[in-house]
């Protein structure tokens, strides 16, 4: 059975994606900071007949990250790492002039440093994954370069960040890393500066990882507006109805089903492409 690590899986998008993968027969390693909600989620996930290892803890803790990867190894390997756990930096969100620097450090630690720490620990297992066949070409991307700010239509071969000689023709298939990004990473929204800066850093980090690890699929996805506890903590006075996280899961599953190339995606684009029967495109905003 394929194996996934999903951080922040006790509720919200992480919980919804874990449920969808469990139904598909994936074995799961899940984490969250609160033990009670995580154990409840794990019991429901195990009811689908999958093996579930639930490890409460903070992804900012190196020992906890190592335990997550070790648990995946005990299940047989690692095919998908989902960096979903997130921190706002301030609850509710505030303007940059009022943002506590310690809050910004926390946002960067959880949204940027911790994902890289898990990736570093998990790389040996991810490189050994044979869940997907290798890419059909030597390029780690297909089409236009998928990192932020690249002119539309510019090919990776024209990019100063890409050297075809770095891609080993003998590379083997590998697993996938999915980072949950945000439109705040590319848009300047008042009060979202600290969180947006952290997610922008995650985007760039993901783009570099994709170039440095061409045997892996690296996706960073803007899920769009969702009705989650995180959003409620960010903007408690906003009582607008927002889509449930479950509505975003089909977009994430499409990445898996299409063995999508590395790149930045939005859930809206992936869902639109699914409706039209075409492949989702890398290189959105």
Automatic annotation (TrEMBL):
One of its GO terms (molecular function) is oxidoreductase activity. InterPro entries: NAD(P)-bd_dom_sf (IPR036291), SDR_fam (IPR002347). Keywords: Oxidoreductase. It comes from the Bacteria. Its EC number is 1.-.-.-. The keyword Oxidoreductase applies. Belongs to the short-chain dehydrogenases/reductases (SDR) family. This is SDR family oxidoreductase. The lineage of its organism: Bacteria, Bacillati, Actinomycetota, Actinomycetes, Kitasatosporales.
């Amino acid at each position: 059975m394929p194996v996934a690590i999903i951080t922040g899986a006790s509720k919200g998008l992480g919980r919804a994606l874990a449920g969808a993968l469990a139904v598909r027969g994936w074995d799961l390693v899940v984490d969250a900071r609160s033990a009670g909600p995580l154990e409840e989620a794990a019991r429901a996930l195990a009811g689908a007949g999958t093996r579930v290892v639930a490890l409460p803890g903070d992804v900012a803790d190196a020992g906890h990250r190592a335990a997550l990867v070790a648990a995946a190894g005990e299940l047989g390997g690692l095919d998908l790492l989902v960096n979903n756990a997130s921190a706002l930096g301030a609850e509710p969100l505030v303007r940059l002039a009022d943002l506590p620097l310690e809050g910004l450090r926390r946002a960067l630690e959880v949204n940027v440093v911790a994902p890289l720490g898990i990736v570093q620990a998990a790389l040996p297992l991810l490189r050994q994954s044979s869940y997907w066949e290798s890419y059909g070409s030597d390029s780690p991307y297909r089409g236009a370069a998928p990192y932020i700010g690249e002119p539309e239509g510019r090919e990776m071969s024209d990019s100063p960040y890409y050297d075809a000689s770095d891609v080993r023709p003998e590379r083997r298939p590998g697993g996938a890393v999915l980072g949950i990004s945000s439109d705040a990473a590319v848009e300047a929204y008042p009060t979202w500066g600290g969180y947006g800066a952290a997610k922008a850093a995650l985007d760039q980090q993901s783009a570099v990882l994709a170039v440095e690890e061409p045997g892996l699929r690296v996706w960073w996805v803007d899920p769009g507006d969702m009705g989650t506890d995180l959003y409620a903590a960010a903007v408690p006075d906003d009582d607008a109805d927002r889509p449930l996280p479950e509505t975003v899961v089909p977009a994430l599953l499409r990445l898996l089903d299409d063995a999508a190339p590395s790149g930045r995606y939005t859930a809206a684009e992936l869902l639109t492409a699914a409706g039209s029967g075409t492949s989702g495109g890398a290189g959105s905003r």
